Amino acid sequence: MNGARAVARTLLDAGVEVCFANPGTSELHFVAALDDEPAMRAVPCLFEGVATGAADGYGRMTGRPAATLLHLGPGLGNGLANLHNARRATTPLVNLVGDHATFHKQYDAPLESDIDALARTVSGWVRRCTDASTAATDTAEAVAAAISAPGQVATVILPADVSWSGGARPAPPVPPRPPATVPDTTVGAVAEALRSGEPTAILLGGVATREPSLRAVGRIAAATGARLLCETFPARLERGAGLPAVERLGYLAEGAMAQLDGVRHLVLAGARAPVSFFAHPGLPSLLVPDGCQVHVLATTADDIPGALGQLADMVAPHDRPVLPAAARPVPPTGALTAETAAAAIGALLPEGAIVVDEANTSGLWLPGATAGGPRHDWLTLTGGAIGQGLPLAAGAAIACPNRPVLCLEADGSAMYTISALWTHAREGLDITTVVFANRSYAILNMEFQRLGAPAGGPARRDLLDLSRPGLDFTAIARGMGVPASRATTAEDLTTQLAKALAEPGPHLIEAVVPALF
Amino acid sequence: MNGARAVARTLLDAGVEVCFANPGTSELHFVAALDDEPAMRAVPCLFEGVATGAADGYGRMTGRPAATLLHLGPGLGNGLANLHNARRATTPLVNLVGDHATFHKQYDAPLESDIDALARTVSGWVRRCTDASTAATDTAEAVAAAISAPGQVATVILPADVSWSGGARPAPPVPPRPPATVPDTTVGAVAEALRSGEPTAILLGGVATREPSLRAVGRIAAATGARLLCETFPARLERGAGLPAVERLGYLAEGAMAQLDGVRHLVLAGARAPVSFFAHPGLPSLLVPDGCQVHVLATTADDIPGALGQLADMVAPHDRPVLPAAARPVPPTGALTAETAAAAIGALLPEGAIVVDEANTSGLWLPGATAGGPRHDWLTLTGGAIGQGLPLAAGAAIACPNRPVLCLEADGSAMYTISALWTHAREGLDITTVVFANRSYAILNMEFQRLGAPAGGPARRDLLDLSRPGLDFTAIARGMGVPASRATTAEDLTTQLAKALAEPGPHLIEAVVPALF
Questions:
Q1: Distance (Å, rounded) from C-alpha A82 to C-alpha A50?
Q2: Record's superkingdom (chains A, B) (predicted)?
């Protein structure tokens, strides 16, 4: 068999069953190989950022990598922003990046570029295949790298002649590196801090925001009064009925500093010491309060649930987590605002929903409105590279075909990868997208206000305003095959959301809301 | 003044008058600086690939750089594909990429990434500003690098604190490196080859495809019988009434080999020795025929018009170029196909049009249908990174507000940067976009046929087909504020094209054509 076929077979044998693809000429032999491997689901994406974002969503929900199929340097370039988010999410993901034939590279043909350099900026592991006979081994090692704790982006660069040359055969799966066990002494030291009686907070990141760890920290909090926080942008936060509530660290330094004020012990479980998202004149970058001792219980590469379970057994052997009361907002009426929109969403949030949150400023009330709702997962913008939501929703829906996906999108962010809607339609994915149409890059207006800057001149008005012309997301969505409607009142949104959630397949609702800033 | 203001003022003083922008928080001080520098036109783009492609179009048409304003690594990443095209086009262009404050980088905040590595893959010149007091000098040097012969992408990385810190002042323009004079001996050697009587071809690239060089090579061809070819994908080919005809080298190796068959002397003027766009099993990469001597008259860094003029004076002192007869296709009737669409476009091509050609397989008949038309410029996909057309058209229209822009787009390619339509609407640009809707990545089907591959299984059908659901470009365009219509017959297209060209501002026509492959 040729190299492409051996790579495809090796991926399947290692558990990689979905390929989010945007191929070009140099990837054709791999496409042909997929014809012979129908167990691999090939999902067409009209832009590489859709493919990479979808693979991130899939990996976050399954813990297994999807493959992407990308076309040389420019294809990888188009996928970088969402690979950046995947890197920050420690998502297992395998990129297959086609390249010119090995003998062709010396001629610097028009599509030649430094793929390796691009790949290294987002990948924990990069390998350039050199021969059909070793491509499958390269691929098996890539999958092992991708799923080694805590998970990472692994990139295989696959020259066209490696794909088309014969003499290849599949390689068996390579065992991944498991999470490291946290030493007892480390757990013991943290237990001592928790028993000190001094104000303590536990900051959760990585898999610490999933159920097993949340149950453990819930017990710890019940026993010790420790405050439970998680990273500002968790990859996947499990929430709702039956789970202890966790507060996300604030996006703005001022907010995070207020949350951490007075804390004397900060226990890190899969999170790093908190830093400001952006620097700000006159504010610190590192947000650990003065006099606060930082305790690293576990990094993302460690066995976090194991360490937290052990810690809970030490400090809270007989305690049960305090669980938030089940409560949904009343369906709102009247004007549609970010606040009433959040209430409508909270009122209707389906059991088992996967919520993809790229609502940015318009999402301010969403966590509160959904905290007492049924059990759900909350996926956030881990790396800050906007344009993540619609693709991430596609990948999550393919990962979990029996769960409803609710994609909450800011209008500005939605436009970066808007063609993901076509993939929603093509694959018939059960995704309800709510676009918060505030006709503005409102977060930048907020930052200007925060700087105490004056009201703004022509450039600022031109660059932050999305109202001239207004984007009609219902027309755009219908143009890509997604049924769409527009909500201008709270009642509209409730009605349209209920209808969209009740019907299978993709829907989009443009929720017209005023900008907060 | 602060660093941002000094940078903005320096750009203006150096002749950079347009900034295609997609800013974020780290670029806010630069946005505020633009408020105080109203001479700089700030053009909002909803995606960075629109900003970089527009800057490419602007640079190709003016010879002067536009600036882009991009947000850290992910913003630059989103802009890379069209920067790759700009690099291949040797377009002068200045990227301003915001970054975290210098003191903030050590904390590896979520948006931290290796901007420098990304920038180097597409830039001939990269500088990271370290201090407000030197940022203006960095910027002046960036502009000089961008406009030094032959033109290149220059990238300035601008940390937020460099922007916001005071103590800066503008820097005066820095003289660029001029084109190098080609030695007389080189010109003489080429003259001797042209006089040999053996079959000779001149392959044009860079500015050799512009009027002064074309007039010179037209004379040379008239005197010596040399064949005139240009690169497969010229950055800007001047064509039509009054200019000698130049044949583009074929995209497929087979075609280019046929064009070069029998040539004994190949003279390179701003072009490199021809290579296949992609390698293909059993075909050579280097397309110079056996026994053909290659003569490098001038590289892109040389004074190409000077060398060609001198050469013409030597071998054709009294000759005039042979000019193609003025001829337009008859307005077509009946079925709308790639061929009749080309005829409609040829029949109506306006005087002075700027044609942006990303029609791919559907564009097969366009060069023939427009060769005898009025004078126009033809801009092509220099680097092969699709998603160039709509952004390039925006930049060309801003560069040349009194010239009509005709953007000829393949449907698959259009979707990569579709949000450029909003910038067309926002800026009221006189761009008529024709989307060739063949509902397929037809070029990949062509490549499969070329490989003699069998008809294709499920993956190939799924990944190359754009018809399930069909993209409604009229809805998508209207959703972004661009008036749109659909043509399903040749008469439709002629009528709609005439109307769109007669009205100012942007229009889009979805031309429904069968796929050729």
A1: 8
A2: Bacteria
A422, B471: Cβ pair inside 8 Å?
yes
Q: If DSSP codes are grouped into helix, strand and coil, which group holds residue A241?
A: coil
Q: Which residues does B203 contact at the CB level (< 8 Å), separation at least 6?
A: B229, B230, B231, B249, B266, B267, B268, B269, B271, B274
Class of residue B270 by CB neighbours under 10 A (exposed 0-12, middle 13-18, buried 19+): buried
Secondary element (H or E) of residue B96 = strand B93-99
Give tens-digit pLDDT for A458-468: 889 899 999 99
Residues linked to residue B269 through DSSP beta bridges, in sequence order: B204, B298
| Assigned token pair, A359 | 């609502």
CA distance A441 to chain B (A): 9
| Percent over 70 (pLDDT), chain A | 100
- Find residue B355's DSSP bridge partners: B378, B406
Q: How many angstroms separate the CA atoms of B70 and B66, rounded?
A: 13
**Residue A260 reports pLDDT greater than 80:** yes
Average pLDDT over residues A64-88: 98
Alpha helix locations (H) across B155-237? Answer: 160-164, 184-194, 211-224
User: A494: helix, coil or strand?
Assistant: helix
Instruction: Report all structural domains of chain B as residue ranges with CATH numbers, in order of start.
Output: 3-164 (3.40.50.970), 184-315 (3.40.50.1220), 338-512 (3.40.50.970)
Task: List the structure tokens of A455.
Answer: 């009201």
Subunit contact B278:A470, Cβ cutoff 8 A: no
Backbone angles phi, psi at A99, to 5 degrees: -140, 170
Determine the number of helices (DSSP H) and then strands (DSSP E) in chain A. Answer: 20, 18
Confidence of residue A451 (pLDDT cuts 50, 70, 90): confident
**Interchain CB distance below 8 Å, B276 and A109:** yes
Residue type, B347: A
What is the separation, in whole angstroms, between the first and last Cα of chain B? 59
- Indicate whether A454 pLDDT > 80: no
- CB spacing of A77 vs B81 below 8 angstroms: yes
- Strand intervals (E) in A91-212: 93-99, 125-128, 153-159, 200-204
> Please, which residues bridge with residue A93 across strands?
A153
Radius of gyration of chain A (CA): 23
**Average pLDDT, stretch B331-346?**
98
Determine the residue among B25, B251, B361 to mutate to test chain A binding: the one whose Cβ has the most chain A Cβ atoms within 10 Å: B25
User: Are A479 and B471 within 8 A, CB to CB?
Assistant: yes
Residue type, B24: G
The answer, yes or no, to whether the previous bond of B469 is cis (omega within 30 of 0) is: yes
Task: Decide: B85 and B381 in contact? Cβ < 8 Å.
Answer: yes
Give the CA angle between residues B150, B151, B155 to the nearest 5°: 150
Distance (Å, whole) CA A107 – CA A104: 6
pLDDT value, residue A458:
87
Q: What is the 3-state secondary structure (H, E, C) of A79-102?
A: HHHHHHHHHHCCCCEEEEEEECCH
* CB–CB contacts below 8 A, A to B: 313
- Which chain B residues touch A426 with a CB distance below 8 Å? 468-469
> Residue A386: is it exposed, middle or buried by C-beta count within 10 angstroms (0-12/13-18/19+)?
buried
What residue of A is the nearest CA neighbor of B115?
A121
* Option in A23, A385, A418 nearest B463 (CB): A23
pLDDT in tens, B128-171: 999 999 999 999 999 999 999 999 999 999 999 999 999 999 99
Averaged over B392-407, what is the pLDDT?
98
Report helix, strand or coil for B432.
strand
Contacts for A290 with CB less than 8 Å, ≥ 6 apart: none
Looking at residues A147-175, what average pLDDT do you find?
A: 98
CA distances from A365 to A234, A343, A385, A406, B360 (A): 17, 8, 22, 16, 47
Angle at B14 between CA B173 and CA A448, to 5 degrees: 115
Q: Do B465 and A77 touch (CB under 8 A)?
A: no
